[in-house]
Specification:
mainly alpha; EcsC; about 70% helix; EcsC family protein
Length: about 240
């Protein structure tokens, strides 16, 4: 028998799946153009520094075990898992907001530190969520799944459609992956990721508005990431994985 929590999760999942598959609208294209224009106000050296951070993050996640801190949660019911996940999202949301306000208020160069700090918070949250849903991130394909979740959360609508289709058919796609992380084309992945990740966050580096943008943006970005991750793992559960 389906519990009320499972029914509500199924309703939320269907609504989320519909959003992920929408065609890009005029508003999406306008938003993207605005973000690109904002992007142009940031010095090229900053863009290069951010690219290096993302590159090292992707390599670290695929090849390392820095963020592997939890064992998969076993023998837990769906409601218990969901409650634990929501608790973790709330904790990291508050942490990220405080961190964003502090670095945003400290000026341009300290604001740059927010990018690796926020990436670390995001990854720690995603590793925790994966474990709470019972997935073992010692498997590099599970770590790759985490990176795709992050890309899905922060993509343009066009790219979101593409990434969603890959995650919706994850088991089939996973069978096409190389057996070892060392053989994965991480360079192409990080370049695609850099093209879409967190463009709105660049406003945090601008004078005066850095602190409020940092706090609000971080809070909302973690909320978005948490919601995306929950629905991705709900989708895998619904597909019987």
């Amino acid at each position: 028998m389906t519990t009320p929590e499972e029914h509500q999760a199924a309703v939320e999942l269907r609504a989320w799946q519909q959003r992920m598959q929408r065609r890009p609208t005029l508003w999406h294209r306008f938003t993207r153009a605005t973000q690109v224009k904002l992007n142009g106000f940031i010095p090229e050296k900053v863009h290069q520094a951010i690219t290096v951070v993302i590159k090292q993050m992707v390599r670290g996640v695929l090849f390392g075990s820095t963020y592997i801190t939890r064992k998969p949660l076993q023998d837990a019911g769906f409601s218990e898992r969901e409650a634990a996940v929501r608790t973790r999202i709330a904790y990291y949301r508050t942490t990220a907001a405080a961190e964003g306000a502090a670095t945003g208020a400290a000026g341009f160069f300290v604001g740059l530190a927010d990018f690796p700090l926020l990436l670390a918070i995001k990854l720690k949250l995603l590793f925790d969520i994966a474990a709470l849903y019972g997935h073992d991130v010692k498997d590099y394909t599970e770590r790759l799944y985490i990176l795709y979740i992050m890309q899905l959360a922060f993509s343009s609508q066009h790219n979101r459609n593409l990434v969603y289709r890959r995650l919706a058919d994850w088991e089939a796609y996973r069978q096409t992956l190389p057996a070892e992380a060392a053989d994965f084309d991480w360079r192409t992945f990080q370049q695609e990721y850099r093209d879409y990740i967190d463009l709105a966050k660049l406003a945090q580096l601008l004078p005066v508005i850095g602190a409020p943008v940092g706090a609000i943006a971080n809070y909302q970005l973690i909320k978005l990431l948490g919601d995306t991750a929950m629905n991705c793992y709900r989708m895998r559960r619904a597909m019987g994985e």
